[in-house]
Amino acid sequence: MKSKSRIFVLIIFFVFLFLPIYWMINMSLRTNADILHTLALYPTDPTFANYIKIFTDSDWYSGYINAIIYVTINTLISLTVALPAAYAFSRYRFMGDTQVFFWLLTNRMAPAAVFLLPFFQLYTTVGLLDTHIAVALAHCLFNVPLAVWILEGFMSGIPREIDETAFIDGCTMPRFFITIFIPLIRAGIGVTAFFCFMFSWVELLFARTLTITNAKPISAVMTRTISATGLDWGLLAAAGVLTIVPGALVIWFVRNYMAKGFALGRV
Amino acid sequence: MNKWENNKAWFFLIPVLIFVCFSAIIPLMTVVNYSVQDILAPGKTVFVGTEWYRIMLRDPRLHEALWRQFLFSGLVLLIEMPLGVLIALAMPKKGWGVSFCLVTLALPLLIPWNTIGTIWMIFVRPDIGLFGAAINEWLGIAFDHTRKPLDAWITLMFMEVWHWTPLVALLAYAGLRAIPEVYYQAAKIDGASSWATFLYIQLPKMRGVLTIALLLRFMDSFLIYAEPFVLTGGGPGNATTFLSIYLVKLATGQFDVGPAGAFSLIYFLIILVLCFIFYQVLQNVGKGAKT
Fold first, then answer.
1. What phi and psi, each to the nearest 5 degrees, are found at residue B272?
2. For B145-167, what is the mean pLDDT?
3. Does residue A80 sit in the same domain as residue A105?
4. How many Å lie between the alpha carbon of A56 and the closest alpha carbon of chain B?
5. Domains in chain B: ranges and CATH
6. pLDDT the model gives residue A266
7. Once rounded to an integer, what is the mean pLDDT over residues B263-291?
8. Chain A nearest C-alpha distance from B247 (Å)
9. Residue B174: which of A39, A240, A263 has the nearest Cβ?
C-alpha cells in the first residue's frame, strides 16, 4: 500500500473509533436539560456536576469499588490456579491431556446465559449471593481456561533443558517453580493478568445477576439507571467515561507486550 | 518438543479441576436436572423425560433466534475480517506510531460491554445522538433504531464492527510482524507489485492468526448478549433477539426453568460442536506452522 492511502485508511478508522467515545465525553460534561435542549458538537458550558455526583454519591462510586474488588480477586485466583495446570500441559504427556485441554476450552466458549440460572441457585444455596467472591468465582468459568491457554503458550516457549538442569542440580519442584520458572515467564503472567482483568471487567450478565446491593458493580448500576424513568443522560455518560479509565490505564502498562501476547497466547 | 510421559502430572491439575467442578460441572448438572423435570410447586417435581426438548426444538421463536444469530455472525465476519486486515496493513512498522496504534486499537476491547451499548445508544439516538441527528436532519432519512428493525440491525452492525474489528486488526498485525524481512526483499528483487506481495506472501503467512481471529470472532459473536441488551433490548419486536437474549428472557423473565434448561443444553451442544471444529483447526494450524 502507498503511504498516502495507508495514512488515509488509518485516519478514517481512528475517527470512526474515537467519534462515539468523544460524543459520550461531550455528553458527560453537560447537564441533562442542556443535552435535551440543544444538539451541540462540543460542550458550550462545560460542567463537572455529573462527575461530582458520581464521586460523592455512594450508590455510584461503590459500584466502581465493587467491580475492582471482584476483578482483582478473580485475576489472582485465575493466575494461581492456572500456573501449575499450564505447566503440566506444557511439560508432560499424560493420560487424557488433550481431552482435558479441550474440555477446559469448551468452558471458555460456553454461553454465560446457560450458566445463569444454576449459578444463581448454587450461590444462593451456599450463601455467597451478593458477595464479591460470588462474581469472582463465576468469572473463573471463562478466565481459568483462558489463563491456562495463554500461559501454556508462553511456557512452551521456554526450553525444557532449563527444568532438567535445575532438577539435576537438586532443585525441588516448588523452589524451581517460584525462584526460576516464574521470573522467566513474567511477561506471560503479565499478559495473562491483562486478559483476565479484561474479560472480568467487561462482563455484565453474571455481575448483574449475582449481586443485589452489597457487591453491585458499576455495570449493573448503569443498566438499572437505563431502565428507570426520567433518564439522566449526562450522568450515564459520565459513568460510562469512568468505566473506560481503568482499561485505558491497564493498556498503557502492557502496551509493549500486547502484540507479542496476542500472537503467543493465541488469543 | 518431546514431553515427559508422567501420569503424576494430574496432580498439577487438581486446583483447576476443583474450580472448574464448582463453576462448570455442578451448574451444568443442575441444568440437566431442570431440563427433564416439571416443577409444579416448590418441592413438588415431576419427571417429564424429553418433553421439554421436543417442545423447544419445535419452538418457532427458537428457530428464528437461531437463524438471526447465524445471519448476524456471518455479516459480522464478512465486514470485520477484510477491514481488520486492511487496518493491519496500513499500520506503521516502527516508531512512536506503533504504540499509538496498538493502544488506540485495544481501547474498545477494554470498555465494559454494557458501556459499549450505552455509548452507541447515546450516539445513535435521533434526538441527542450525533449519528442519529446527522442522518435524520442533515440527510433527511428517518432513522430510529428503537422502531425500525432494519435500523436496529444497522446500528448493531456498526457497534459490533466498532467494538471487535480492532481485535482482528491486532491479531493480523501480530501475524504480519512475524514475517521475516527476507521475504519482502525477495519480492522486491522479483519486482512483485504490492498486491502480489500481499496475495502470495502476506496472506499465506497470516493464515494461522487469521484462522484464529475468524473462529474467535465467530464464537464471541455467537454468544453476544450485553450490547444488544442495552441498545435495543432485543427489539423492536423480536428483531434483535439473539440466542442469549432469548434464553435469559426465558430463564429470568418467565422463570420457565424446564424449557430454559432444555434450551440451554441445545445451545451448549451447538457451541460444543463448533468448539470441537475450532480445536481441530487450531491443532492443525499449529502443525502447519512447524513444518
1. -60, -45
2. 88
3. yes
4. 21
5. 60-290 (1.10.3720.10)
6. 45
7. 74
8. 7
9. A263
- A19 and A61 share one domain: no
CB contact under 8 A, A251 and B267: no
Domain with A10, as residue range(s), is 1-47
DSSP one-letter string for chain A: --HHHHHHHHHHHHHHHHHHHHHHHHHHTS-HHHHHH---SS-SS---HHHHHHHH-HHHHHHHHHHHHHHHHHHHHHHHHHHHHHHHHHHEE-TTHHHHHHHHHHHHHS-HHHHHHHHHHHHHHTT-TTSHHHHHHHHHHHHHHHHHHHHHHHHHTS-HHHHHHHHHTT--HHHIIIIIIHHHTHHHHHHHHHHHHHHHHH--HHHHHS-SSTT--HHHHHHHHHHSSS--HHHHHHHHHHHHHHHHHHHHHHHHHHHHHHHHTT-
pLDDT < 70: residue spans in chain A:
1-2, 225-230, 256-267
Residues A119 and A170 grouped into a single domain = yes
Q: Are residues A91 and A27 in the same domain?
A: no
Residues A225-238 have pLDDT tens digits of 665 555 778 888 88
> Which residue in the block uniquely carries the three cell numbers 501454556?
A152
Provide the CATH number for the domain around residue A160.
1.10.3720.10
| Number of domains composing chain A | 2
pLDDT digits 0-9 by tens, B127-138: 788 888 888 877
Last residue of a domain, one of A26, A47, A68: A47
* B166: its cell numbers: 480492532
If asked whether residues A123 and A60 sit together in one domain, one would say: yes
In chain A, which among 40-69 make CB contacts under 8 A with chain B? Answer: 41
Nearest to B122 among A148, A233, A266 (CB): A233
